[in-house]
């Protein structure tokens, strides 16, 4: 074995005090740029009234961002050796993520997916290299690692072919489904030894990244209020309501630990991939806030209800997707009905004279519902009425 390298053996899934490494945090910072570029392009498309095309392009770009992040995150939880080769390979993946970030707006605004495909292939081929190294070092999980490596490489050939022949848009979800199938096929016979608490922490950190996009939008509203005295009050109200909503989103997501969501393989896959909707909707809300600011500054001429829907649809998706990811398994009828009603109320709040007021009130109610039902569950488990 070359100097400075360690055998890439599966880490102890019960390792105490396992936390995200500084390299993982640096890796996540690269994705901040990619998410920001995607949500910014969505804002522009919505302002130009390209709603369906904007959502479709955003969904495609966000898939490239998130799927590459997910596979690295679960791999690192099981096989982070932190030697020089692991670090260099991770830096290559970061380069791929930056390429995706650089091409996000061109893909969404001009339908040019060249940089997205190139960046995604860079990330995924490097990931296949990591799985190959694990297969060589760890005989106990060799079959799983080989299936991952081969599956990833085969799918990259399909992605490149789709791009080179200028394949139709409808083929994208088909290839995405094939890409997503690699993990359950690879893990079918033996599941990798990931760390439950570590995975929950990593997903929580990415949630903070997408919520940070909305915090940035809030800051933009405050900055705008400083330069436009005539609209100062309205912009400050937008900032205040948006901050209340972001706080409610944080509350809803982080109100209870989530490490128990990954105990069984089917639940782990459902929880992990359902976060696509959690993350994408949270980042899309920031685009809705930017639309609200543009309307207030008379830089956008979207109809009132349409502008409101750019805020409330992402929030409704976030509330429902978070419930499906975290709480639906508990089969709490009160929370299930409440979540559906609150999601509908969010959509209807776009009809109000001030949609952000209504959305903020509904999101506070959603956070209160989550806290109440979690407290009720805890009391039941402790034997209290």
TrEMBL record:
Does the keyword Transmembrane helix feature in the UniProt annotation? yes
Record keyword Transport present? no
Q: Which InterPro entries match?
A: Low_temperature_requirement_A
Transmembrane region positions?
Answer: 51-72, 84-107, 113-133, 145-165, 203-223, 235-253, 273-294, 306-326, 346-370
Per the record, the domain of life is: Bacteria
What keywords appear on the UniProt entry? Membrane, Transmembrane, Transmembrane helix
Residues in the signal sequence: none
Q: What is this protein called?
A: Low temperature requirement protein A
